[in-house]
C-alpha cells in the first residue's frame, strides 16, 4: 500500500505486469486457489460441495454459471444485515449500486477491500503504460468526477455507486498522489450534493489552475462532453467570477462555497485571457487545448456506449490524444489498456490474470450448450461472453458482456469490448445489438452534417403495441432540420440495420416500418436528472441505448418530449 507520498515506479510496474502475463495460466490457477481458500467457509460455496478443493476442474464441476438474479437472494440477505459468511469469508460492509441504466434499476453488488485493491492495481498498471507514452509533470488533473451520496441499507451496510465507493476510499487519494494525478478541485466539490453545482466548480477550478492541468479525465467520456457543453453556456459567468474573485450565487451549498472561496481571488488578467480565447474560437473547435495549454491527453472510458461521444470530444480536443480507460464493471475489473496510443475505436484491454478468475463462453455455438474455456484457451478472432469469479463473492458470474479476442499480450488475451448481450433490439428473428444501433445512427446522422447540425444523443425502443411491432429511434438534435432531411434520415436508419433477420422480416412486413421520433432539446438531460435523482452518480451515468417496456419512467420521459415523428418508406 502507498502510505507516503512516493511516486510510482513505472518501470517496476511494467516489469511486474510483463512477468505475470507471461505466466498467465499458472497465475490464474493460483488466483482461483486464493479466492477459494479465503472464501471456502462461505455458505454459498459450502452448499456446492467443494469440500476444500481449489483446483479449476473441481470448481467448474461443482459451481454453476450464474447471473445476478441467481445471486440476488444471497446479496439481499447481506444487504439486510446478516453477518454470517454468505458469499465471502469476511463480512461485506459496503454495497455498490450499478448505474441502473441497463435494466432501469440499479443492482446491488458486494464491494470489499480486495475489490478496492484490484481497482487500484488496474489504475496503477494503465498509468504506467500511459506515462511511458505520454509523460506528465507533477501538476494537477481536471478530473470531472462526482460522488453521489452513500446511504445505509436496512442492515446498516454502506451503499453507494461503485465510483462513489472508490472515490471515498482513503487509498484512492494516496494512489492519485503517487500517480501525479491529483484532482484540481477540492473534496467539497467532488462530494458536493448537487452535480450541476459541482460541475460548475470543477470548470472554475480548471480555469484557476489552467497552466498546471496535465490531463483531463472522467469515468466516462459522456461526462467530459457534458462538461464542455455546459462550459459553452456558462463561460461568461465563469469569467465574471474570476474577474471579481467572487463565486456566483448559483452555488448555494455553504461547504462548497467556503472551499471555493479559498481558491478564488480577483484575477482580471486571467478573466480577460479566457474571454479572448473563447471569442477567438470557431464553433468551440479546439476549446480544450486553448483553455489548458499543458494538457497531454484526455482520459476516460470511450468504448461501448461511449463511442458516439467521440466525434464531439475530438471537436473540443482538436489533436490531443484521446485514451480509453480500463475495462471493468460494478462487479469487478477485467483488463487494462496497455496500448494508450491506439485510438479509442480500436482500444483493447489485456486481462490481468491475478485480479480474478476468468472464463469465456464461445458465442459461435449455441450459448446454452457451449462449454466455457479458460483465459489462456481463447482463440484470436472469436467472440465470447465474459464470466468472472472475484474476490468479492461472485463465482462463475455471467457479466453479460460480449468481447472479441484480438490477440495476446504474452499469454494473456487482449479483448475488444463489443456490446452488452442483453441490449438487443429484437422483435422476430432479428437481432440488433447496441453496436448495430450506433452504426445506423452514425450513417443517418451524416445527412445532418450538411445542415451543420448534430445528433446530441439517441436511444431506441421496440414498440410492440403496433401490429407488427417496429423499432423506434429517439433523436435529440442541436437545431431545426428540414422535414425532407429527417424523412431521409428515417429511411437511412431503417436501411442501415443490415442484420439478415431484420431485412427479411421487413421485406415481408413481419416487422413494421422504423419510426424516428425527434425529441425536444434537453430531453436527455431530463433522463440524466432522473437517474441522478435515484442516487446514481453523474460519473457513472450511461445513456440507456435500448429502453425496454420495464424501464417505464425513462420511456415516459422520451415519449412525452417527442416533437416530430417519421415512419420509414425504405422497404
Please specify the SSE layout and strand pairing:
Layout (H helix, E strand, L loop, with lengths): L9 H13 L1 H16 L3 H4 L9 H7 L5 H12 L14 E4 L10 E4 L1 H21 L6 E4 L7 E2 L5 E4 H6 L2 H9 L8 H4 L4 H14 L4 E8 H24 L9 H8 L6 H12 L7 H5 L5 E5 L8 H8 L4 E3 L2 E3 L2 E5 L12 E3 L5 E6 L10 E2 L8 E7 L7 E13 L2 E9 L3 E2 L6 E2 H16 L5 E9 L6 E8 L5 H14 L3 H8 L7 E5 L3 H11 L18 H9 L1 E6 L4
Parallel strand pairs: 1-5, 3-6, 6-7, 7-8, 20-21
Antiparallel strand pairs: 1-2, 4-5, 9-10, 10-11, 11-16, 12-13, 12-14, 14-15, 15-16, 17-18, 19-20, 21-22
Helix pairs in contact: 1-6, 10-11, 11-13, 11-15, 16-17
Protein name: Jasmonic acid-amido synthetase JAR1-like
Family: Belongs to the IAA-amido conjugating enzyme family.
GO molecular function, one term: acid-amino acid ligase activity
Quick description:
The protein has 571 residues and is of the alpha+beta class. It folds into 3 domains: 10-113 and 327-420, 3-Layer(aba) Sandwich (Rossmann fold), CATH 3.40.50.12780; 135-151 and 161-320, no CATH class; 434-567. Residues 435-550 form the GH3 C-terminal domain.
How would you portray this structure in words?
This protein is α+β, with helices and mostly antiparallel strands and 571 residues long. It is globular, with a radius of gyration of 24 Å. The protein has three domains: 10-113 and 327-420, ANL, N-terminal domain (Rossmann fold, 3-Layer(aba) Sandwich), CATH 3.40.50.12780; 135-151 and 161-320, no CATH class; 434-567. Strands 9-10-11-16-15-14-12-13 form an eight-stranded antiparallel beta sheet. Mean pLDDT is 85; it is low at 1-5. It is 39% helix and 20% strand. It contains 20 helices and 22 strands.
